[in-house]
Amino acid sequence: MDATPNAPLLPQPSRAQRLWRSGQGVAVPAVTLVLFVLLWEGVVRAFGIPPYLLPAPSRVATELDKLGVQLWPNVGATLLTVLAGFLVSVAVSLPLAVVLAASPFVARAVYPLLLITQSTPIVAIAPILVVMLGTGQLSRATITFLIAFFPLLVGTVTGLLSTPRDTVELSRVLRTSFLQDLWMIRLPAAVPFVFSGLKVAISLSVIGAVVAEFVTANKGLGYLITQSTAFFNVPLAFGAVILLSLMGVTLFQAVVLVERVFFPWSAQAERLARE
Amino acid sequence: MSVAAGASPPSLHLDGVWQAFRSADGSEVLALRDFSLSVAEGEFVSLVGPSGCGKSTALRLITGLVAPTRGTAAIRGLPVREQLDEVGMVFQRATLLHWLSIEDNVLLPVRVRRGRVGPADRQRARELLELVRLGPFASKLPHELSGGMQQRAAICRALVLDPSILLMDEPFGALDALTREEMCFELLRLWSEKRKTILFVTHSVPEAVLLSDRVVVMAPRPGRTAAVETVALPRPRTLQSMGQPEFQARTQAIRQVIYGRDPERAAAAAAL
Q: Which of A56, A116, B121, B137 could link A44 by a cystine bridge, Cβ 3.0 to 4.6 Å?
């Protein structure tokens, strides 16, 4: 039981074995993806499907290429809305979660309001918000925020309230102050919950940004979709959709990366919980 | 060892404590009725008894987390609320913070109390870990250690502020039987090196007898003292202690107090 740790007994896996193992995670899905695109291309060509119904991947690429440098301001505009909405969600949800978790009274008072905002389809109030807040970035960020913040808020509150009973008791015996309890014990314990919430929030932010751009925008990928479909340029709409998915995946992975780098024990806890 | 007479006040003193709680349905529940206990400096006392006999309530009184409804709780003659740093607490589960290394877990009370951790504190934490043979694991994370090792780290955490009293609430209850025995001897060894006053709550009669100078047997609803057994086994205690007549006699006596009123259960207990 008390042998010195770190003494390797098992043979180390060879370089090739390690490469194979680490490569599997990337290689297998990459191959699936390539096969899917080839199948898509093949089906469209074989059956001669017209591009306004289902464009082939090659056609989508051509349309995007035609747009050239004009593409980037659109990507940038959407990314800005996504990040603004996401950051506001974080800035609002985390402190609000602390307040809600600390005070059952405030929680009881505020929860009905929160539930109403979440039961209301944001798509339905988006046009009203545009009237109230104008047609600018503020409206788009607000719509994105309203769509994205709730899971993060709920996740964080749950995390703060699910500190194990005996850990709470430990904190009381140590006579931690409110801030010490929060900072040293409850928040770190809640980090896996916060990151679950962040992962949902970043995905919803992309959705929110597109909804916002459908309602009010003069550039952006969502705007590109409404504009191109209005002129039956379905290949370009497809291109915008693909870019949106890429953006969503990249942002999601960025959140995962932040968790792994700065909170390795949180990623670990999630892994252990899964096993 | 008996309660010290004379000038120095006992390490721990509960005097005529009544403890009432309001239960969820609004009725009043009496957790302790006229409970008194005096523990001398450096004495090892166990509280045994069935669930609901107020053992844990008694410990919580001493941590100052709850104030007695009636009666007094004092440490070295002063109210418990003025003696917070004199008490270290070990829970049933190790309750280590899984994102901190073992050493940082041990240092948690220092960080809470003083806001920062100095080299002297680190030195002290490492000495404690050496003492329970966890030296090589100081920089490991809790989940890399076995349950028994985690609980040893939790004991170090309770000792890091050098309290005079160690409260242990069924500390080995979550461990398997073998680890449990091992931990008993580990605790006895630690106690012989750092002479703390220990108040130990357990469900296990043999464990209480093996460890303690005195065993306080409690009866439930409302919690009160049913009997106090003094264990005259010589120290240091070893595996052989458990084979001695005194061990058998004390274990038997305590079981009879616990099961006594029920003839069937008493017979079952006698057969054990």
A: A56
